[in-house]
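The following block was generated as part of the benchmark described in Methods. Ligand: alpha-L-arabinofuranose.
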Amino acid sequence: MKKAKLILDKDYVISRIDPRVYGSFVEHLGRSIYTGIYEPDHPSADKEGFRKDVLDLVRGLNTPIIRYPGGNFVSGFRWQDSIGPVADRPKRLDLAWKTTEPNEVGIHEFCSWAKKASANVMYAVNLGTSGPAEAQNLVEYANHKGGSAWSDLRIKNGAKDPFDIKLWCLGNEMDGPWQMCHKTATEYGRVANEAAKMMKWTDDSIELVACGSSSSEMPTFGDWEYTVLSECYENVDYVSLHRYYGNPHNDTPDFLASTMDLENFIRTVASICDSVKGKKRSSKQINLSLDEYNVWYHSNEQDQQLYKREPWGTALPLLEDVYNFEDALLVGLMLITILKNADRVKIACMAQLVNVIAPIMTRPNGGAWAQTIYWPLQQASLLGRGTSLLPQLICEKQDTSHYTDVPMVDAAAVLHDDGSVVIFAVNRNLTEPVELECDLRAFGKFAKTSHMMLHHDDVKAINTETDPLNVIPREVPVTFKDGKVVLPPASWNVIQVIK
Ligand code: AHR
């Protein structure tokens, strides 16, 4: 059997893990809101029209933060359309997704829903068709206690207490030509800086995320971050990264190696932040917000056809990727990469949460179920809290079509405050098991171990409304003998070593 060795020491630490790395994202796009989280006529709807079956699945992820309301959508969104009596709210064309936005759910409704999900809101302001003034007005509306025009309007609209939104995105993907009012790095950096100043002058307790690159493949990648941060370094707290992967050529080993690119992307952006810090002789460190990551490619063709048939609809089934088991493995590898970079990645949002490239699916007037990618996110979110340990991993490496020296096993380890350790490990090898020897000698004796595993013999296996438990984690009975554990081919493993 192939072998790998993982050495951990409680004194070899990457960083405390910011719980916000288990965040998610809800955009006014497709069926994310309408017939996703909100469907007033659904049998499970609560009195505000939110689906309780969906809320239960969301709660199962223990999601600390949810980015909202976009996405590309936000660059044309007038937030003022989404307040006041619902009957008076305008229907607007959304140029980002070529649909019609009814504005039935707005900031009041979303904040109420997020509270039910026990999540905080990460709100993105429009720095496309709108600018710093509208962003300032929104912070005043949302966070000021009262006694000013915007805060009093919030109170009049039914929310006596401020929403107290602590984390804000300064626009979305402003480097992308597909964005409404796309900008050059200098243009965006200046607007972001001015918006940031006014937003923080309104509420100095908030934190701000500046737009980084929409992907590491953007032609402006690198220059964009450097120029933007040169303009707004002192007034922002994080820079964003967005990254999606696909497997359109059915090359699974190469697909599962995609996190080599993610690792490189993260370390490069962190270096750029530090080079601007050096240039400015600043003592402040900018950290990273990976506020869109996932697999996204299954629905591309279907979406093109849909647009031809039904332009400008509402709640169209857009970006409805059906995720298979290999997608769950890649999501697991992405979570491992996030944990291994916990010193710089402080926020990460799986994009998205419901129906739109999502771990949770719904059928209008029907059921709600968890896709394959739900499970690694859930396990990491529930068990990956504490301190990320520096994993010394010794294993075979192999080349794939696009990557060299890809480790056969990837792993992250988390030390809980009670002294127990959780190891997340993926065996990328599709045909052979690997015996992983975990050297935990610095930890002393452990009372109990457990091993949960996500595996399916068919990497293309999926979950559906009628077969929702096809790909789910299962407890493996024989575990951790002499610190050794067998990782089956193509598997996501969660090994808990309890004090
Ligand atoms: O998450 C789907 C879309 O992907 C978002 O709207 C946009 O920010 C990104 O391009």
